Amino acid sequence: MKKWIPVVLALLLSACSSTPSKTYYQLPALGTPVQVTGTPASRQLWLEHVSVADFLAQSGVVYQTNDVQFVIGQNNLWASPLDQQLQQTLVTNLGSALPGWVVSSQPMSSEQDVLNVTISGFHGRYDGKAIIRGEWVLSHQGRLIKRPFNLELKQGEDGYDALVRTLAQGWLQQAQEIAAQAARL
């Protein structure tokens, strides 16, 4: 009888524990996809590359717990690599913000503008803000325009769902800023 006690205790303990479920997140493209027929007069923008800092290139959604510590989610994960999601949504958001332009993640011609974006912050923070930080470089007819960006957006609610929605809203806002700069050239 005594040799069964450890087995029964182990079974009871394992019945009380549960494995947390994993949740996967995809950034929504908040801009409206547009169909543009390329004409010789239409401007072209190639989004060549979006790169993210190493700590953001993990599969987990990142949360900053204090001024120097970050946690990479183990159960709150990106559905696909973050750099890919950022590039895909940026193409959609720029296309929506630049009517008449052809915006693509593929090269189109030698006359195109070329955009590269580096992300150093795309995470939640302990004070309830979503952080989007980095810089972009736009090449237009041999001229380079480089702009840093640093957005801190207040989340409307707690939780990862609200964080991802707020990050998507900030990413749309940044796309609109890039579009405004590109349109002025």
Automatic annotation (TrEMBL):
<feature type="signal peptide">
    <location>
        <begin position="1"/>
        <end position="23"/>
    </location>
</feature>
<dbReference type="Pfam" id="PF03886">
    <property type="entry name" value="ABC_trans_aux"/>
</dbReference>
<feature type="domain" description="ABC-type transport auxiliary lipoprotein component">
    <location>
        <begin position="25"/>
        <end position="179"/>
    </location>
</feature>
<keyword id="KW-0732">Signal</keyword>
<dbReference type="InterPro" id="IPR005586">
    <property type="entry name" value="ABC_trans_aux"/>
</dbReference>
<dbReference type="InterPro" id="IPR049736">
    <property type="entry name" value="PqiC"/>
</dbReference>
<protein>
    <submittedName>
        <fullName>Membrane integrity-associated transporter subunit PqiC</fullName>
    </submittedName>
</protein>
